[in-house]
Design a protein that fits this description.
The protein has 311 residues and is an alpha/beta fold. The protein is 47% helix and 19% strand. It has ten helices and twelve strands. The protein has helices at 14-20, 35-47, 58-66, 85-95, 113-121, 134-159, 169-182, 196-217, 243-259, 287-303; strands at 27-31, 51-55, 73-77, 103-108, 126-129, 186-193, 226-230, 233-239, 261-263, 269-271, 274-280, 309-310. Strands 2-1-3-4-5 form a five-stranded parallel β-sheet, sandwiched between helices. β11, α10 (287-303) and β12 (309-310) form a beta-alpha-beta unit. It is elongated and about 75 Å long. The model is unreliable at 6-20 (pLDDT under 50). The structure holds 3'-deoxy-guanosine-5'-triphosphate (GH3) and magnesium ion (3 copies).
């Protein structure tokens, strides 16, 4: 068979790679039955600027993970009292379903293939033989950080709107469903820019994009709950807010948008208005039904003359 051709590319050495990767401080949970081992590995980690929480009991570690503590890395030995390390690997995988990626390293003093395969099959990302050499541990943590970084980037790409940085439609509906599951009072504001087609026609698509970005910025107080759900349509989730209070918030937002003028590079300024619909969810609503209520109110705001809020 043909020999692969060497790809011409930037020449860099491994040492160079190590230098360019920023050492990022990670929050690490370290689990091992032996306090001596905890101290030894814990010291290596803290010396490198990481934050470490140690457990000699698997059950306590599991409770800590379930407690919602935000961690970046779980390092667990196989042989732990309470909950075995293998199970911890699994549980960590199940818990870490949010926006914050969790890297899992299994550790064992044995190096046999069975152990290694079992660890990786149980959800571990990597395997370390104890005690690790400091250099090896450092390198494996850099690999962990690279993967966590890539996972964070994937989450961002999957949940954020590229133009405005707000949540995208998909992430918004997931949050709305989540909120409904909790059964608390909540309202939604649906916002649609008025005569936006005219903005594009007059100032070009780029001018339109500048306006979309400015409208998104006017919602910065709602970071993490504001979304771009359509081309020039936005939505905001308001947990714990009744419909009439949401109406007041929507009105303030409407004024803020009407007061915002964006200046293009050529010096021309654009200002827009928006129409808003507000709705509290009903007891048995799913997210679609809830948004439908807000959409009906928004439609009433449009037909009522635009630049207004209807609940
Ligand atoms: P109305 O007051 O009834 O909402 O009128 P409108 O012109 O805002 O509504 P319409 O739905 O007819 O037009 C929306 C326009 O938004 C059409 C589309 O070209 C534009 N649009 C959608 N996505 C984008 C985008 O990403 N950038 C820009 N610049 N325009 C977009
Ligand atoms: Mg629209
Ligand atoms: Mg519109
Ligand atoms: Mg209503």
């Amino acid at each position: 068979c043909a020999r692969p051709r060497r790809m011409p590319g930037p020449a860099f050495s491994v040492a160079h790679l190590v230098i360019v990767q920023r050492v990022v401080s990670m929050r690490i949970v370290l689990v091992d039955a032996s306090r001596v081992t905890l101290k030894l590995i814990g010291r290596m980690l803290t010396d490198n600027g990481h934050e470490v929480v140690c457990f000699s009991d698997g059950l306590e570690a599991l409770a800590y993970l379930h407690g919602g503590s935000e961690i970046d890395l779980l390092m667990t030995s196989f042989e732990t009292p309470g909950v075995p390390g293998i199970q911890l690997c699994w549980e960590a995988r199940l818990i870490a379903n949010g926006d914050r990626p969790l890297y899992v390293i299994a550790m064992s003093s044995s190096n046999d293939a069975d152990h290694l395969a079992e660890a990786l099959d149980s959800g571990a990302d990597d395997f370390i033989r104890k005690p690790p050499a400091p250099m090896e541990l450092d390198a494996r943590l850099r690999a962990a950080e690279r993967l966590n970084q890539a996972r964070r980037e994937l989450v961002r790409l999957a949940t954020r709107d590229g133009l405005t940085g707000l949540l995208n439609r998909r992430a918004f509906f997931i949050q709305a469903e989540d909120l409904l599951r909790h059964g608390i009072v909540a309202s939604v504001i649906l916002l649609d820019i008025d005569h936006f087609k005219q903005v594009n026609d007059t100032y070009g698509h780029d001018g339109g994009d500048v306006v979309l970005t400015a409208v998104a910025r006017a919602m910065s107080a709602y970071a993490g709950r504001a979304a771009r759900v359509g081309g020039e349509e936005f939505a905001i989730l308001l947990p714990g807010v009744t419909e009439s209070d949401a109406y007041e918030e929507a009105e303030r937002l409407r004024w803020r948008i009407a007061d915002t003028a964006v200046t293009l590079r050529d010096g021309r300024t654009i200002s827009v208005t928006a129409s808003l619909g507000v709705a509290e969810h009903a007891t048995d609503d799913n997210a679609d039904e809830w948004m439908k209520r807000a959409d009906i109110a928004l439609y009433a705001a449009k037909t009522g003359g635009r630049n207004r809020t209807v609940m």
